[in-house]
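Assemble and predict.
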Amino acid sequence: MSFLRANPFSPPELLEAFERGIGNAGAVVSFSGYVRAENRDETVASLFLQHHPTLTEDGIEAAIQQARARWSLTATMVCHRIGEVKAGAPIVFVAAASRHRRAAFEAADFLMDYLKTEAVFWKKEVTQTGSVWIEPREEDYVDRARWSSQKRG
Amino acid sequence: MLINYYGRLADVTGCAEESVLLPAGISTAFEFRDWLERKHNLGSALSDPAIRIAVNDEIIASDRALSANDEIAFLPPVGGG
């Protein structure tokens, strides 16, 4: 299945669909990310997400496989917008299901850290004054590094 | 050969995609990269160590030979979503 959507999606609808296929899970954790209307004191009109035709989805698939190797999960879902995403619109949805809550919480957090730092996207922020390509924030790298220093759970 | 410039690189080259014949005397990815820099007057925009090169959708770790139908992509650091 494709992780990328060129058109707006509804996180509640995705969650409802996800929960129909979670097997005998006892826990579902989901995360919905929206485009913030302001960043660094500037009003953001939209983000533009460029992807690569194969590397972007291959990378997401590899991150999901890492999560499944690390935690016992009954189901996962990743959905990410590409193209122009208006301020206030959903840009990412991640869900994980497991027998117990800890694995689902951690797997969803892990997948979001991947998507925020390493995922193959080039992101342009469009404001009233023009547009600028955005590089990763330092704290995103710190968030991602948590997973290499932690004991495997 | 089909060449794709991703992210901010398309602003630098003025095009996101172009098609060129492998020039005579150019046989490797790095030689081709340097040739493109001269062609577009890019300084070292493509040979910046932060820029990764993909040949036929595979990121190369070191220089390699090119053939006439290879597809080349220049990838700036990815910013996540």
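Strands of chain A lie at 4-5, 27-34, 38-39, 42-51, 73-81, 83-86, 90-98, 121-127, 130-134.
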